[in-house]
Amino acid sequence: MKSISLLILAAVIASFSSAATLGATTEPVVSISALKTVEAFTNAKFATETIGLGRVTAGDPWDLVGPARGTWLPGYGVIVTFELSLVNITPPGLVNATISKEEIKSDHDRKVAKLVVFKDTMRDLVVKAAGTLTTLPPEQNIIFEAYFFSFSFEDHSHLPRRLTMTANRQKLLDAVARKASPADLAALIEEREE
Predict the structure, then answer these.
(1) Whether residue 150 sits in one domain with residue 173
(2) pTM score, two decimals?
(3) How many independent structural domains does the chain possess?
(4) Which residues are paired to 79 by β-bridges?
(5) Exposure of 63 by Cβ count < 10 A (0-12 exposed, 13-18 middle, 19+ buried)?
(6) Span 101-153, pLDDT tens digits
(7) Range of the domain at 53
């Protein structure tokens, strides 16, 4: 009886191994190295140089809080997520004991203005990923999802907590091949704010 159970277990394991091998050969797999490439150029795009402990660093850069992480979901596409603050803000206690209402308003206004620039930058990343992920099946999607970090003392009005952009890889590749305008490319990318 014990040997029959072991034989059945071995047969089940062998059938799963064969099915996994067959499945792996029928659909291309997006490699970890390809995902790392997308993560690296995403992180580089939002990298900042800290200059002192002031409230704003030179050029008002992004503040990448959580680096990009990509994963491939077979049959759906690649998802790249990251967390950042639209502007670099020093919280109270590190340099200033308090944050004035004027500083809160100024930080909010900067974030609202930077959101427009951020969306253009994120669309560019989606398009770049379409060309970089060469083994991603063309009918699958590329999704970039940004989580926006903010402190509790900030004004959150008119700012999303999360922004997701989704596009079909083949549609993007076709548009790039015909040298579509940025507006035409943007029209192919679905955006969702929460």
Answers:
(1) yes
(2) 0.79
(3) 2
(4) 71, 143
(5) middle
(6) 998 999 999 999 999 999 999 999 999 999 999 999 999 999 999 999 999 99
(7) 31-193
